[in-house]
Each structure stands twice: as C-alpha cells, then as structure tokens.
Write a structure and sequence with these properties.
single chain; alpha/beta; Rossmann fold; Dna Ligase, domain 1; D-amino Acid Aminotransferase, Chain A, domain 1
Length: 372
C-alpha cells in the first residue's frame, strides 16, 4: 500500500510529470503531500501540494528533508520520483533513510537497482535477457552499439542515446565526453537491439510484495529526444502483455518488490526476442497513462483492472511538436491505427482541477532551454 491512514504525511521527492501525477492522486485521498523539486520541475505549481521546497543540489535536498522531519510529529513516508534525488540520497546523504520512511520500495531495493552492476548480476542469475554491456576500454566491442550518459548529478552535453556503428565514431564520442568533463565510466556502452520505436515497449505498475496490484504495458511510439516518450499507446494484445510480464515478473518476485517500478523493453527486429533495457524503481514520466485504471478510496493509487475493452493513448503535446525530428518514431497515422475504437486519450500534465502546471509548461520549457 502506498500510504495507509496512519501515514497522513507523504513527501514526494521529485516534481516532474511523475511526481506531479502521484501528488495529485495522493491529495485526492486526503493525504498531506509535501513536495520537493528542482526550480524547473513542473509539479511545483500544483495545488495538490500543501508545501513545496526547492532543491537543485544534494545539500539543498538534505536541508529540505531535515526541515520537514523537524516540523512533523511523526516520520513521514517518502516516495522517490527522481533518479537525481535518489543519487543524492544514496551517495551524499544516506542518513535521509533515517529521517523518512522508505517502504515503497524499501532502502535495500532502491540501493540494489541504483547499482547497475548489482542489478545486472541479479538479472543474469534469473536468466533475464539483457543487452551486452561493453567496457569503455574499447576492447572486443561488437558494433553497432548505443551509448548513454549514466551520470545523475552533472549536466551532460552528450545526447541521451547515441547510435554508434564504427570504432572511430565511438572514439570521437568519448573524446567529446572528455571535453565536457565526463569520464569514460560515465558512459554506458550497450549492444544495439535493432528496431524502430514500434519495437520499443514499456511495462510498469504498482506491486505489493511482488504481486501485481495494477500494471500497464505500452508502446513507446514517439520519442523526443530518443529515450524520452512523448506518445505512448497502451497495449491490449494479451500475448504481448504476457510476454512483457514473463520477462519482468521474475525480478519483481525475487525482490519481493513493493512500490512503483517501470521497465524499458525492446523487441529485436531480427530475432523477435525481448530485452530489458532499463529498470526504474519509481513512477515514470508517462505514468499518467494509468489514469483510467482508477484508484482506491482506502489510499492505494490503483486497484486491479482487467478491462481490455479500451486502451489509453497518452501524449505530451509540447514534445510531440519536436518529435518529427526523430526518424525512429512511428508515424502519427500508424499511431492512430494502433489504437482501439474505445481509446482513452490522456494529455500529460492536464487536470481540470489543477490546470496551472499544464499552462506553466511553456515557461518551464523556456527556462530549461535558456538555462535561466
């Protein structure tokens, strides 16, 4: 359970689209939602928050949490909605785990998934299919590969995903990373699983002790930049849903997982095999695709639903305007053909009872663009 009646106060750590969504849901059930976000997090403008703290670095995050803990009579429950904040807590201020209650998921689970080497070993033990990862020393690399910056605390001038087909291209990218103050170990070099975005899937939901409370499978149809969804279509094909569940549930069971979790998954265009690309132990950017799933009056964000008569169509209009630049995207025409007749349209950030974040996104985008 994300929050029972004894946990009136909830601290949401990270106020991007994911933090905004869960803040709204929790507020609807009478929870006192205290938010911590960066100055350009869109959720800071939500009326779902009783109070909002701004924290752009590890020190500011710690001081905000310390102030919150001192102001409350009992420990508040915490919900991680930001990779960056999770990095700050684990690497800089682990004492935060004593100031707030982390149960969805718990501390040891957050630490394991945060450590990509430990997570990779765990998945290997479970015989889960993942792409090969290569050492940045450049030895014995089989091209093509993709390269991702895996830094959580520095600003990266390297694209979120780079497609590399030759050795000299990789050397050039590493040189560029070094020029911008990154180290080779800040780059994840991974086997390229061939295919366009009609082969890119997401699977996520809310789980208790490894059991599904509610989940959703979707195609990450349009992305901008590549790796960030701006159009997602819920899957109603049971065979694909079962394939994605069978690939991910062993890890969820092995961790006895409680909380939100999301997987990036890709189907190889050449072999038809599914690979786990990434695991996020938190609500994810397009989580509002779960809006039609409903919520429980007792405080759970979601109740189980097997209704497959309609599928959700989630989109982020502002980024969709730019997504025409990405040639890997599914065309708008094909997207429409993939939706069921009873589609449920979901516009990211929109809520008629909390409209300010939606209209502030234009200003926030300009702030991010010009770095002011």
């Amino acid at each position: 359970m994300i929050a029972d009646e004894s946990a009136k106060n909830i601290v949401v750590l990270g106020l991007g689209p994911a933090g905004l969504f869960v803040s709204r849901q929790l507020s609807k059930f009478g929870k006192n939602v205290i938010g911590i976000g960066k100055h350009d997090d869109i959720g800071r403008y939500s009326n779902a928050l009783s109070k909002c703290y701004i924290a752009d670095n590890a020190d500011e995050l710690y001081h905000a949490i310390k102030e919150i803990s001192l102001s409350l009579q009992h420990k508040a429950e915490a919900l991680i909605c930001s990779d960056g904040y999770l990095t700050f807590i684990i690497e800089d201020y682990p004492e935060v785990f004593d100031l707030l209650i982390f149960s969805s998921p718990e501390e040891k689970t957050l630490r394991l998934i945060h450590n990509k080497e430990q997570l990779s070993e765990q998945m290997k033990c479970l015989n889960l299919r993942t792409p090969k990862i290569y050492d940045p020393s450049l030895h014995e690399i089989e091209f093509p590969v993709i390269v991702k910056p895996i830094i959580k605390r520095k600003v990266s001038n390297i694209p979120k995903i780079s497609y590399i087909h030759k050795h000299n291209e990789l050397c050039q990218l590493i040189d560029k990373a070094l020029e911008h103050g990154l180290e080779p170990n800040d780059l994840l070099i991974q086997q390229l699983i061939e295919g366009t975005n009609d082969n890119e899937f997401g699977y996520g939901g809310y789980f208790e002790c490894g059991d599904i409370i509610n989940d959703v499978a979707f195609i990450q149809a349009r992305q901008y930049p590549q790796g960030v969804s701006c159009t997602a279509i819920e899957i109603s094909d049971k065979s694909i849903i079962d394939e994605l569940r069978n690939l991910t549930i062993p890890l969820i069971h092995s961790l006895n997982y409680t909380g939100f979790i999301q997987f990036d998954i890709k189907k190889s265009a050449s072999t038809g095999e599914y690979y786990i690309l990434d695991v996020n132990p938190r609500p994810w950017g397009s989580i509002s695709i779960m809006t039609p799933k409903g919520a429980n009056k007792n405080g759970n964000l979601f109740i189980h639903s097997d209704n497959q008569e309609r599928n959700a169509f989630w989109h982020f209009p502002l980024k969709e305007l730019m997504s025409v630049k990405n040639r890997r995207n599914i065309s708008f025409k094909k997207c429409r053909s993939m939706m069921s007749p009873r589609k449920e349209p979901i516009i990211d950030l929109w809520d008629k009872n909390d409209f300010k974040p939606f209209f502030m996104q234009w200003l926030v985008s300009l702030v991010k663009l010009f770095g002011k």
